[in-house]
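B., you asked whether I could sanity-check this one before it goes into the benchmark set. Here's the sequence:
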Amino acid sequence: MNQRSAVYLDLLGILLAIVAALVIGIFVIFLVSDEPVAALQALLIEPFTTLFSFGSILNRMIPLVFTGLAIVVVFQSGVFSMGAEGQLYIGALTGALVAVYLPEMSPWIHIPLVVLAALIGGALYGFLPGVLKAYFKADEIVSTLMFNFIATLFVSYLLNYVFKAPDSGGFARLPFVQESAKLGPMFDGFPTHAGFLLALLAALAVYLLLYKTKTGYELRTVGKNPLFAEYGGIKPKKVLILSIAISGALAGLGGTVEVIGLHGTLKDNFSAGLGFDGIIVSLLARNHPIAVLLSAFFYAYLQVGGQIMQANSDVPRDLAIIIQALLVIFVSSQAIFAYLKQRKLMSSRGGERVAK
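And here's what the prediction gave me:
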C-alpha cells in the first residue's frame, strides 16, 4: 500500500468515526426527546443560521487550535505530555499581567509584548517537566498532570489574594486589560475576535516548523525512532525538552488570546478543560497541524450546537458531550489498532531479515 492510499484510508477511518458518533447521538435523541426533529435542527443546523452563532463557533475554536497544536508538537516527538492545561494557565497569567499593568501604548507594541510574555511563560512551564523527563526519567504523563494542578491552584491563589481587582466583588479576577492590549473583532459587526488570525498563523507556523525545518525533522525522527535518531547524531534529550517547551509556548499563547480577545480579564477557572480538549482535537487531526483547524472547528461546532439544543429543545447539552466522548473512543481506538498493526508489520519484517 502506498503512502497516498494509507492517508486516504486514515481519513476514511476518521470520517467513519465521526459518522458513527453522530448516528449514536441521533439515536439517543430520538429515545429521550419528545421533539427530536427540533433538537436535531438546533444541534446540527442552527449554529450556522445566524452570524452570532457562527462567530461563537470560531471564538470557541480559537483556544482549541492552540491547545491542539500544543499536543501535536509533543505527540509528533513521541512525548505523551498532558500539560497543556497548566501551560495555558501560566501563559494566560504572564500575558495578562503585561496586558493589565503596562501603561497604555500603541496596540502594535502592546499586543506583541503580551504575546511574547505568554510564549515565554508557557515555554518555561513546559521546560520544567521536560528536564525532569530527560535527565531524571520522570514519567511525563504523571509530571505534567501534576504540573497542571500546580498551575491552576497557583493562578487561583494569585487571583484571590495578590492581584484581585478591587471592583471584582465576589469574583476572583485581575483588573481589566488595557484597551491597547485588546484583540478587537476581525470586522465591524462580526463577533469573532482577531485571535482567529493568530490561530491560523500558529497552525501555519507549526506546519512549517515540523515539515520544513531541521528542528522539525529532528522532532519527528525522535518521535518515530529515538534510537535511530541518536545514531544519526540527534540528541533525544534536547529534542524532548524543546518539544515540551514549544508545546507550552503554544498552549500559553492560547490562554492569553482568550484573555485579551474574549474575556478582557483573567478570571479564576477560566479554562474549563481547554488543555484536555486539545488532546481530542489532536487525535481527530491525526497530529497534523493544518488538520487541527478542521477538527477544532468541528469540536467547537458541537459545543455551540449543544448549547443551542439545550436552549431550544428538551435535550440537555450533555448529549453533545456524549458525542464528543464517543469520538474520542472511536478515533483513539482506531489509532491504537493502526499502531499495533504497524508494530506487527515491523516485527514481521525483522523476522524476514533474520531468516535471510
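One thing to flag: The two ends are 23 Å apart (CA to CA). Otherwise nothing jumped out at me.
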